[in-house]
C-alpha cells in the first residue's frame, strides 16, 4: 500500500495519484521523507513531509524562520493571528513578524491564523495579499488545513518551519 | 460462406499453421477465456465464442480450404486497415503479497493511406436530429438551434441523408429521412419550429431512431444527435434500452445538454452505450459551434461501429475504461463490448484502462488481458475487421523503477481530477456532506496547482454550497464534470494531424 503524503489515505500499489486528494504519489514516500526531515530540516522546501498532526495540551510550537538563527517559541492560544504590526491598524497580530523582515517579504498585516482545536492545530489564510503556502501548496483563503510536525509554512516570501515540542 | 472476421488473426496463428499449432493456440486461449472461469467477465465470453468459431473453421480441412479460396479472391490491394496498439504503464511489475493496480493505454490508428488525396473520400452520413422544442427552449436557444440546423443542412452533401424529429410531450417527424437535395425546403421546415410544452425524451428518441433506420446501412455513418434542455420523467429506462438496441443495430447517439436543468448521468449513459459523445453546452451560441464541429468529424469517418472487448484473465479485474481521445468520455461495457463510435481518418482513438491484479503473483511472465478491437472500415468491400492484442507483463521480485510513459501519466493526472469530481458527487448522493466538502476542496487545490483558477473557484464555491445545502448547484455539477473532462483534451494523444 502507498500512503498519501498529503491526506494520509492508503492507496493500492500501482496507483500514481491519490484517489482521495489527487496527490502525485511518486514524490518520495512517507517514511523516507520523515527521515530526511530529521537530518536536514532546511531542505524541506516544497517537499511534502509527514509528521504527527496530534498536538497535546502541554505542547508548544517552535518556529524556525529561515535566515534567523534563534528558533522562536510560540505560545499557542485558541487562535493566534500571524501578521505584521502596524500602528495605524485597529487589529494587531499576536505573532508579529516585523522583526524578521515582514514588510520586505510581503507579509500582510493580518496574514494568517493558527487555530487550536481538540488535539490538532490548523492554519488558515486570512485573505493575505501574497498568500500562505503549506509545504509548497497555496492555501485557499478561509480554508483551514491541519498542521503537522515539521511542516513548512510560507507567509508571502517569508519561510518558516514549525515543530511541536 | 460469409465470415466477418479473420480466424487466423483471432487465433494468432500464421496462414500456414499446421493443425497441431492451431490446436495448441486454441487450447491456450480457451483455458484463459472459458466462461466457467470467467463468470463476471462478459468480454471473455465474447472472445471465447470468436476463438471457438475460428478454431472449428480452421481445424476442418474442407472449410479451411474454402475460406482460403474465398479470401484470396476477395483480397485486393486497396483494402484498408486500422491498427491496435496497447501500451502498459509498466512492463515490469513487482511481485507483492497484496493486490495491485495497473494501467493500459489502448490506441486505434486509422490506415495512414486514409488521408492521402487520391484515396480520400468523405464518408456519407445518415444523420438524424432529435430536437427539444419544449417551452424552456423559447427565445435565443431556439433561434440559435435553428441557425445551427440551417448551417448543418448547408454543410451536408447531396448524397447525405437527413431526418429531423422535434419533441416536447409528444414527438413529430418534421423531416422524414431524405437525401439532402432541396436545401431551402428542408431549412424552411426547420424554421417553423415553435417552443411549447414539456420534455419527454423517449417519444422523440424512438421516432428519431426509427427515422435513422429507414436508410440504416453499413456504408453510412448512422448517427442520431439528441439535443435537450430539460429533465425527462419516468421514461429514462426505456430510453436506455432503446440506446442499447440502437447500438446493436449500428446507430450511435450523441447527447447534448443545454443550460443547467437536465440529467447529466442519463445523457452520459445514452452516449456511452452507443459510442457517441455527451456534451454540456453552456450558452446558446455554443450549439452552432458544437453541431458544426461534430458533423464535420462525422463526415471524416474512416471506420464505424468501432468497439473494444476486454477479456481479462480470470484473476484480473477491469475497473475503469475511459476514452481519452478524440472526445473524452467515461465508457460502459455492454454485452461484453465497449462501444467507441467512429474512428476518424485523421485522428486516433485512445482508451485508458485500469485493472486490478491479484496478490501473490509468481515471478515470470504472465498474461493479463486480451484486447480485441472490431470495426467496419467504410470503404472496404469486406468491411468488418478485427485486431487482437494479447497483453503479457513481467512480474519480478525486484522493485521497478522504470519511468512510466509520459502520455499515460499525463492522462492519468487529468483523469484523477475527473474522478475526484465524481467521488465528490457520490459523497453528495450518499448524504456525506463532510466527505463531499473535503473532496471538492481537494479538487480545488489540485485545479489551482494546474493554473485552472476559474474552475478551482467553482469547486470551492460548490464546497461551501454543499456544506450549507447538502447539494451541488445544477450549474456547478455540470461545469465541474464537463470541464474536468475537457482538461483531458489538452493532454490527448489522439490528435495526430492537428
Rounded radius of gyration of chain B (Å): 24 Å
Largest sheet of chain B: 6 strands, mixed
The coarse overall form of chain B would be: globular
Q: The biggest beta sheet of chain A, please?
A: 6 strands, antiparallel
Q: Count up the helices of chain B.
A: 14
Question: What is the terminal separation of chain B in angstroms?
Answer: 42 Å
Give the fraction of residues assigned to helices of chain A. under 10%
Mean pLDDT reading of chain B = 86
Structural class of chain B: alpha/beta
Please report the two chains with the greatest interface, counting residues with C-beta closer than 8 angstroms to the partner's C-beta: A-B, 18 and 33 residues
Q: Could you tell me the number of beta strands of chain A? A: 13
Poorly predicted runs of chain A: 29-49
Overall shape of chain A: it is globular
3D structure, described in words:
The complex is a heterodimer of chains A (165) and B (498). Chain A is mainly beta. Helices cover 6% and strands 30% of the residues of chain A. Chain A has 1 helix and 13 strands, in the order E-E-H-E-E-E-E-E-E-E-E-E-E-E. In chain A, the strands form 3 sheets. Chain A has a 6-stranded antiparallel β-sheet with strand order 4-3-13-12-9-10, with no helix packed on it. In chain A, strands 6-5-7-8-11 form a 5-stranded mixed β-sheet, with no helix packed on it. In chain A, strand 1 and strand 2 form a beta hairpin. The longest helix of chain A has 10 residues, at 30-39. Chain A is globular and about 55 Å long. Chain B has 498 residues and is of the alpha/beta class. Helix content of chain B is 41%, strand content 27%. Chain B has a 6-stranded mixed β-sheet. A 6-stranded mixed β-sheet of chain B has the order 6-5-4-7-8-9, sandwiched between helices. In chain B, helix 8 links the parallel strand 7 and strand 8. In chain B, helix 5 (140-155) packs parallel to helix 10 (285-299) and helix 11 (406-429) runs antiparallel to helix 14. Residues 492-498 of chain B have low confidence and may be disordered. Classes of the chains: A mainly beta (165), B alpha/beta (498). At the A-B interface, strand 10 of A face strand 3, helix 11 and helix 12 of B.
Amino acid at each position: 500500500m502507498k500512503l498519501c503524503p498529503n491526506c494520509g489515505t492508503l492507496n493500492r500499489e500501482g496507483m500514481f495519484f491519490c484517489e482521495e486528494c489527487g496527490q502525485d504519489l511518486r514524490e518520495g514516500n512517507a517514511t523516507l521523507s520523515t527521515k530526511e526531515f530529521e537530518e536536514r530540516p532546511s531542505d524541506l522546501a516544497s517537499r511534502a513531509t509527514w509528521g504527527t498532526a496530534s498536538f497535546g495540551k502541554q505542547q508548544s510550537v517552535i518556529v524556525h524562520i529561515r535566515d534567523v538563527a534563534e528558533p522562536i517559541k510560540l505560545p499557542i492560544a485558541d487562535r493566534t493571528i500571524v501578521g505584521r504590526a502596524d500602528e495605524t491598524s485597529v487589529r494587531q497580530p499576536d505573532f508579529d513578524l516585523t522583526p524578521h523582515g515582514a514588510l520586505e517579504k510581503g507579509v500582510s498585516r493580518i496574514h494568517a491564523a493558527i487555530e487550536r482545536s481538540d488535539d490538532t492545530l490548523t492554519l488558515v489564510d486570512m485573505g493575505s495579499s501574497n498568500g500562505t503556502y503549506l509545504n509548497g501548496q497555496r492555501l485557499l483563503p478561509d480554508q483551514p488545513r491541519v498542521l503537522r510536525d515539521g511542516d513548512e509554512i510560507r507567509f508571502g516570501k517569508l519561510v518558516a518551519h514549525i515543530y511541536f515540542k | 460462406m460469409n465470415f466477418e472476421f479473420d480466424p487466423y488473426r483471432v487465433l494468432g496463428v500464421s496462414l500456414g499453421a499446421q493443425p497441431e499449432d492451431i490446436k495448441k493456440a486454441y487450447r491456450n486461449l480457451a483455458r484463459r477465456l472459458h466462461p466457467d472461469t470467467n463468470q463476471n467477465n462478459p468480454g471473455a465470453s465474447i472472445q471465447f465464442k470468436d476463438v471457438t468459431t475460428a478454431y472449428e473453421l480452421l481445424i476442418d480441412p474442407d472449410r479451411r480450404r474454402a475460406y482460403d479460396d474465398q479470401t484470396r479472391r476477395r483480397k485486393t490491394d486497396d483494402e484498408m486497415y486500422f491498427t491496435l496498439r496497447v501500451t502498459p504503464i509498466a512492463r515490469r511489475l513487482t511481485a507483492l503479497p497484496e493486490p495491485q493496480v495497473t494501467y493500459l493505454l489502448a490506441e486505434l490508428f486509422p490506415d495512414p493511406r486514409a488521408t492521402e488525396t487520391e484515396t480520400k473520400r468523405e464518408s456519407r452520413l445518415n444523420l438524424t436530429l432529435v430536437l427539444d422544442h419544449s417551452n424552456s427552449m423559447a427565445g435565443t436557444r431556439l433561434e440559435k438551434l435553428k441557425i445551427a440546423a440551417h448551417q448543418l443542412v448547408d454543410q451536408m452533401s447531396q448524397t447525405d441523408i437527413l431526418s429531423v424529429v422535434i419533441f416536447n410531450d409528444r414527438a413529430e417527424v418534421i423531416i422524414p429521412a431524405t437525401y439532402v437535395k432541396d436545401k431551402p425546403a428542408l431549412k424552411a421546415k426547420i424554421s417553423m419550429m415553435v417552443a411549447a410544452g414539456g420534455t419527454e425524451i423517449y417519444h422523440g428518441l424512438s421516432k428519431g431512431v426509427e427515422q435513422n433506420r429507414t436508410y440504416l446501412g453499413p456504408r453510412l455513418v448512422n448517427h442520431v444527435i439528441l439535443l435537450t434542455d430539460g429533465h425527462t420523467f419516468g421514461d429514462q429506462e426505456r430510453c436506455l434500452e432503446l440506446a442499447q438496441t440502437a447500438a446493436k443495430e449500428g446507430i450511435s447517439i450523441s447527447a447534448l445538454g443545454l443550460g443547467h436543468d437536465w440529467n447529466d448521468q442519463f445523457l452520459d449513459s445514452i452516449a456511452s452505450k452507443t459510442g457517441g459523445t455527451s456534451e454540456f453546452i453552456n450558452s446558446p451560441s455554443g450549439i452552432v459551434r458544437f453541431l458544426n464541429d461534430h458533423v464535420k468529424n462525422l463526415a471524416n469517418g474512416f471506420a464505424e461501429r468501432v468497439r473494444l472487448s476486454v477479456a481479462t484473465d480470470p484473476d484480473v479485474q477491469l475497473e475503469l475504461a475511459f476514452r481519452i481521445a478524440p472526445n473524452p468520455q467515461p465508457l460502459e461495457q455492454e454485452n461484453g463490448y465497449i462501444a467507441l463510435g467512429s474512428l476518424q481518418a485523421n485522428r486516433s482513438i485512445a482508451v485508458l484502462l485500469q485493472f486490478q491484479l491479484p496478490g501473490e503473483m509468481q515471478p515470470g511472465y504472465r498474461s493479463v488481458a486480451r484486447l480485441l478491437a472490431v470495426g467496419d472500415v467504410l470503404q472496404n468491400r469486406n468491411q468488418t475487421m478485427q485486431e487482437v492484442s494479447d497483453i503479457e507483463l513481467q512480474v519480478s521480485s525486484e522493485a521497478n523503477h522504470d519511468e512510466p510513459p509520459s502520455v499515460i501519466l499525463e492522462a492519468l493526472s487529468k483523469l484523477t481530477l475527473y474522478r475526484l469530481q465524481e467521488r465528490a458527487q457520490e459523497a453528495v448522493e450518499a448524504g456525506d456532506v463532510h466527505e463531499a466538502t473535503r473532496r471538492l476542496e481537494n479538487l480545488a487545490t489540485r485545479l489551482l496547482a494546474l493554473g485552472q483558477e476559474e474552475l478551482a473557484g467553482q469547486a470551492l464555491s460548490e464546497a461551501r454550497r454543499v456544506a450549507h445545502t447538502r447539494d451541488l448547484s445544477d450549474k456547478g455539477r455540470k461545469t465541474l464534470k464537463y470541464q474536468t473532462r475537457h482538461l483531458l483534451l489538452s493532454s490527448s494523444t489522439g490528435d495526430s494531424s492537428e
